[in-house]
Amino acid sequence: MLWRSRGRWRWYARLMAESPEKPLETLRLHQANERTMLAWIRTGIALMAFGFAIARFGLFLRQIAAIGAVTIPAPQGLGSAWLGGALVAMGTVANLLATVRYARSRHAIERGDVGAPSATLVYVLGVTAALVGLAMTVLLTRSLGE
User: Fold this and answer.
1) DSSP of 54-85
2) Cα atoms found within 13 Å of the Cα of residue 138, Cβ hemisphere only
3) I want to staple 91 with a disulfide (CB 3.0 to 4.6 A). Which of 5, 44, 105, 132 is the partner?
4) What is the C-alpha separation between 146 and 133, in angstroms, rounded?
5) What is the gyration radius of the CA atoms in the chain, in angstroms?
6) Cα dist. 65→6, 29, 61 in Å?
7) How would residue 99 be classed by pLDDT, with cut points 50, 70 and 90?
8) pLDDT at 4 over 50
9) 52, 86 contact by CB (below 8 A)
10) Residues 6+ positions from 81 with CB-CB distance below 8 Å
11) Are 74 and 1 in contact (CB under 8 A)?
């Protein structure tokens, strides 16, 4: 019998002995949980890449201005380095929280306590992204006026 054998199939044989539907549903839930985590990881990586590009482009413009090829006004207050850093930090937090959310959901699936996960992560990142977008809009409109 499979459950007496050693190796990776022991857990599957025990689950099949309990209920033929339970392992299939559990597998579906785990796969959906993993897809959700991977989507959050992709979002976090995209935020970090976008933030890095914004910060680097600001540095590039400052170096070009130092050479004298282009004149740019002196930055006032919040600049591209700060916005880029905020986006990189937001992407890092998104990846960290996605991993924590994945682990909690995985343990809940294993316990059989399946329900909707908390939406706190979505709300926090959404509000933070809106605030960063607002700051970027203010910076762009101020630079157009100069």
Assistant:
1) HHHHHHHHHHHHHHTSS--PPP-SS-HHHHHH
2) 11
3) 44
4) 20
5) 24
6) 68, 54, 6
7) very high
8) no
9) no
10) 55, 58, 59
11) no
Please check whether residue 125 is in contact with residue 89, taking contact to mean a CB–CB distance below 8 angstroms.
no
Would the pTM of this model clear 0.85, i.e. be above it? no
Q: Is 133's pLDDT higher than 50? A: yes
> CA 46, CA 50: separation in Å to the nearest integer?
6
| CA-wise closest residue to 98 among 49, 28, 33, 51 | 33
Alpha helices in the chain (DSSP H): 10-18, 21-67, 80-111, 120-145
Assess contact for 135 and 83: CB atoms under 8 A. yes
Length of the chain: 146
Reading the block at residue 76, the tokens are 């006032």
Query: Cα separations (Å) of 19 from 26, 50, 102, 123?
Result: 11, 47, 25, 38
Residue type, 92: T
Reference 78, options 146, 137, 144; nearest CA is 137
